[in-house]
Amino acid sequence: MTRLIQYLDSIHPLSGELREHLYAVLQVTDLKKKERLLRPGQVCSSIYFVEKGLFRCSYIEHFKEVCVWFMKENDVIVSVSSFFRQKPSYQSIHAMEDGRVYSITYEELQEIYRIYPEFNFIGRVLAEKYYDLSEERFYLQRMRRAGDRYAAFCKRYSETIDRIPATYIASYLGITLETLIRIKKKQ
Question: Distance between CA atoms of 156 and 159, rounded to whole angstroms?
Fold first, then answer.
């Protein structure tokens, strides 16, 4: 939990009271590879910080899995519309490796925003970061050439690319596994 508190404190200094409050409400969850944090139809009731592991978010379209994002250590993971609107999710969040996450519920987060206004700054900075990532993914999907998409993916996920199976990379890029294999052979 120390890593999370340090991460939040690096965005904006945490008061002693806020720090104590976070230690009191944050929950730790250890997951095994292939376990799910969220299934379609469930409401994403918590937002998670990854201390250890690699996670993916996906949904099913035309009987095929579509990967939306990959998150690793020091990332925040959530099904955005489900969490912030407290409605059932169409997405799944899977552990791709054994992992450890810290979580806070929607209600607890709203309470922290209300009691500790300085946490609103942290929330805004995190929202900006993940909105930027979402826009980056949208831009990547608009690239016409699959090779360009893969090159951008490699740059964005350089530290974790060896941890992500090719099947999920292809799904994320919107290409077939065969196309991805051909692209890799050319490099």
Answer: 8
